[in-house]
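Revision sheet: structure tokens.
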Amino acid sequence: MFKRPFTAIYQTNSGITEAVVIDVPCGKEEAAAYANDILPNVHVVAMIPGMHADNTYTYDAPGSFINMPRPNKPAMDPGGPWPENLPPGF
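Predicted:
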């Protein structure tokens, strides 16, 4: 089965939203079914072709979970494809 990388945006039951790169088969329904199999107990919100998770901002849904402690995640260099010498307001 041919697979290609997609960036999956998903939300946990507590409302935390995250992005991760997964390899899924082609086809909307096949990709969704496969993503649900490898990402159990989360709600897949979107799948974008390509590998973008490292340069993606995600925002949590409003709700009572906001006062819950956040999971410990290592600080990452935001980096990205943008050059440093862009003019102001670009």
